[in-house]
């Protein structure tokens, strides 16, 4: 109870915002570790009061401890992985991260494992050993969202129509207040059509809002192209959203 009280005092002293949630989790882990040490000390003290030779007992347990240490290598590795994450802070609770094939939101960080909730709703338990050994991509800390879109217009379009289509795309995308940067190019000519590639940087990290805006942009592109007599030959199947699945 004394340890819980100390942890509570430190939690109340944490500054709001920033890494508060992550620091609270770190304090909880420290509290658990201190309790474990306290239990061991209490047991040894109890044995000593009953006249048990602690030195001899520890000597006898050293061999057993070595065997247990070899058997618990993964557990120790997970513990050091947790310490490394708490020190380096590559992510916070609530951040969307990618570790290997797992892409999701961090829900909890413990001594043994990190819990990540995927976009499909699955709760994935990742051993801290794997967290420390793998490359961590913190998607939440990106300053912008980069999106590539392709618009294929009719191969019968004239050069003037293609140039007009480029200007229309620039007008549509630049008009949005979240547009940080934009590149529109006529990057490919072919029998199936003329491909206009839009590379857009969204000045926020809200993937859901970004996808909603893409839908509005596509509707406006279709409407304005039709008004100008520019025929869309069909969308290029290679449309990349760079894993911007709504949370």
Please sum up the structure shown:
The protein is α+β, with helices and mostly antiparallel strands and 247 residues long. It is built from seven helices and nine strands.
How do the strands and helices of this protein lay out in sequence?
Blueprint: H1 2-12, H2 20-49, H3 54-71, H4 73-88, E1 96-99, E2 102-109, E3 113-118, E4 123-127, H5 128-133, E5 136-138, E6 145-153, H6 159-174, E7 179-189, E8 194-202, H7 207-228, E9 232-235
Antiparallel strand pairs: 1-2, 1-5, 2-3, 3-4, 6-8, 6-9, 7-8
Helix pairs in contact: 1-2, 6-7
Q: How would you describe what is shown here?
A:
This protein has seven helices and nine strands; from the N terminus they run ααααββββαββαββαβ. Helix 1 runs antiparallel to helix 2 and helix 6 packs antiparallel against helix 7. The two termini are 38 Å apart. The longest helix has 30 residues. It has 247 residues and is of the alpha+beta class. A five-stranded antiparallel β-sheet has the order 4-3-2-1-5. A four-stranded antiparallel β-sheet has the order 7-8-6-9, covered by helices on one side. The C terminus is likely disordered.
């Amino acid at each position: 109870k004394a340890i819980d009280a100390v942890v509570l005092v430190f939690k109340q002293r944490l500054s709001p915002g920033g890494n508060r949630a992550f620091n609270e989790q770190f304090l909880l882990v420290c509290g658990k570790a201190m309790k474990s040490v306290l239990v061991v000390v209490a047991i040894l003290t109890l044995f000593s009061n009953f006249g048990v030779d602690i030195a001899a007992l520890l000597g006898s347990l050293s061999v057993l401890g070595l065997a247990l240490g070899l058997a618990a290598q993964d557990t120790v590795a997970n513990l050091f992985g947790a310490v490394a994450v708490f020190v380096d802070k590559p992510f916070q609770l609530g951040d969307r991260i990618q570790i290997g094939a797992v892409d999701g939101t961090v829900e909890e960080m413990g001594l043994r494992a990190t819990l990540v909730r995927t976009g499909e709703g699955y709760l994935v338990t990742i051993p801290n050993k794997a967290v420390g050994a793998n490359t961590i991509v913190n998607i939440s800390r990106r300053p912008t969202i980069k999106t590539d879109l392709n618009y294929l217009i009719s191969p019968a379009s004239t050069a003037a129509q293609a140039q007009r289509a480029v200007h229309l795309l620039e007008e549509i995308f630049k008009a949005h207040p979240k547009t940080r940067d934009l590149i529109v190019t006529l990057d490919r000519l072919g029998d199936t059509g003329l491909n206009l590639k839009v590379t857009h940087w969204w000045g926020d990290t809200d993937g859901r809002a970004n996808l909603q805006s893409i839908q509005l942009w596509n509707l406006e592109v279709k409407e304005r192209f039709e008004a100008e007599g520019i025929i869309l030959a069909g969308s290029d199947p290679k449309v990349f959203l760079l894993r911007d699945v709504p949370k």
